[in-house]
Write a structure and sequence with these properties.
This is Deoxyribonuclease. This protein is α+β, with helices and mostly antiparallel strands and 272 residues long. The chain has nine helices and five strands; from the N terminus they run H-H-H-H-E-E-E-E-H-H-E-H-H-H.
C-alpha cells in the first residue's frame, strides 16, 4: 500500500487532542477536569434516559389500551364498578342484529306527542327544563322565546333565541340516537312503544347544535361529547335508557362504555 493506504500513520492535530483541549492527544491522559466532564456528561445521559423511559412507559400505558382491546383487557381497562357498570352488564350483547326493516325516524314520532297536556311538544318542554332565564313567547304560554344553556357536551354557555337562523344553536339530542335504538331492538316494536322512546324526557337533552350534528346516530364506540368531564354521565344515561327500554349493545359499544366507566368508579345511573 502507498502512503495513503490503510496502514498510513494517523496524524496528530497540532494543539488539540481527542478531548478538544490543547496538548491532549488521543494517547495522552485526560486532566482531572476532563474526567469530571465525562462523569457529569454520563450522569446527564443517564438522567435523560430515565426520563425518556418514564415518558415512554406512561405513553404506552395510556395509548395501547385504546389501540388494542386485548391489551386493555389485560391491563384492566374494561373493568368498572358501580350501578352503571352493573346495569350495563345486564344488557344483551348483539353484534349483528337482524333488522328486517329500514330505519325510519318518523316511526318514533318525535315532537308528535303532548303527554303533559300543556299544548306544547317535547322540544319546548326540554328547552324549558334545561335552559336558564327562560322567557316565553306569550305570557302563561309554554313556547320558549329565549334562554341560556350551560351546555353539558362542550361546557360552553350558549344563548338561545327563537328564530329561523338562531334556533339551531341549541338542539335536542336523543342521548341514545333513534337509529341506534332501531338497530338495538326498536325495529321490532309497535308504534306506541317507539313514540314513548322518541319523546321520553329521560332520553332527551338540550345541547350545543354543532355537537349534536357531529354525533348523528353514533353510539359510544364512535362518539363521545367534546367535554371529557361529561363522558361518565353521558354513558351512564345511555345505559339507563337502554335498560329502561330493553335495548341491546354491541360488543364494541359495551367495551367503549366500560372504558369510560373505568375512570369513574361507583358511577350511578341517572334517575328519571
Amino acid at each position: 500500500m502507498g502512503p495513503d493506504g490503510p496502514n498510513r500513520p494517523r496524524r496528530r492535530r497540532k494543539g488539540y487532542g481527542a478531548w478538544g483541549s490543547a496538548g491532549q492527544g488521543p494517547w495522552s491522559r485526560p486532566s482531572h477536569g476532563s474526567v469530571r466532564f465525562r462523569s457529569s456528561s454520563l450522569t446527564e445521559r443517564l438522567l435523560i434516559a430515565l426520563v425518556l423511559a418514564v415518558v415512554v412507559g406512561i405513553t404506552v400505558g395510556l395509548v395501547l389500551p385504546r389501540l388494542s382491546p386485548q391489551v386493555s383487557r389485560m391491563t384492566g381497562g374494561y373493568t368498572a364498578t358501580g350501578d352503571a357498570a352493573q346495569t350495563l352488564g345486564s344488557l344483551p350483547v348483539v353484534d349483528r342484529p337482524r333488522v328486517h326493516r329500514h330505519y325510519n325516524r318518523d316511526s318514533f314520532g318525535f315532537k308528535q306527542t303532548d303527554d303533559d297536556g300543556d299544548g306544547c311538544n317535547i322540544r319546548e318542554d326540554v328547552l324549558a327544563r334545561d335552559l336558564k332565564n327562560v322567557r316565553y313567547t306569550t305570557q302563561g304560554g309554554c313556547k320558549v322565546a329565549s334562554g341560556t344553556l350551560q351546555d353539558p357536551y362542550t361546557g360552553r354557555t350558549i344563548p338561545f333565541t327563537r328564530g329561523v337562523r338562531t334556533s339551531s344553536a341549541v338542539q335536542i339530542d336523543h342521548v341514545v340516537a333513534l337509529e341506534n335504538a332501531w338497530r338495538s331492538g326498536a325495529a321490532d316494536w309497535d308504534q306506541a312503544r317507539r313514540y314513548r322512546l322518541g319523546n321520553d324526557p329521560y332520553n332527551l337533552l338540550a345541547v350545543d347544535g354543532p355537537s349534536n350534528q357531529e354525533k348523528g346516530s353514533a353510539s359510544a364506540d364512535y362518539w363521545l361529547p367534546p367535554r371529557a368531564e361529561y363522558h361518565c354521565d353521558y354513558v351512564a344515561r345511555q345505559i339507563g335508557v337502554k335498560a329502561k327500554y330493553g335495548l341491546s349493545v354491541t360488543g364494541r359499544e359495551k367495551d367503549a362504555m366500560l372504558a369510560v366507566l373505568h375512570s369513574c368508579p361507583g358511577q350511578p345511573v341517572p334517575s328519571g
